Amino acid sequence: MTKALNRTTPKQIEHWPKIGEMMEDKPELPYEFVKQVIIAKAEKEAGKQEEYTFGF
């Protein structure tokens, strides 16, 4: 998550239009959800995935 939140200035400039586009496409989604999607994508790209098992 740290990598996703610690962006260089150019990456920060790229970040906000992505959020704006997502929010315009799906205005019913809360900002926190959109933010978590972006963090999850960054974690996936960094190879920090964990397998999720459905069920109990």
UniProtKB/TrEMBL annotation:
Q: Please name one Pfam family that this protein belongs to.
A: ParD_like
What protein name does the entry list?
Answer: Uncharacterized protein
Origin species, per record, is Paraglaciecola psychrophila 170
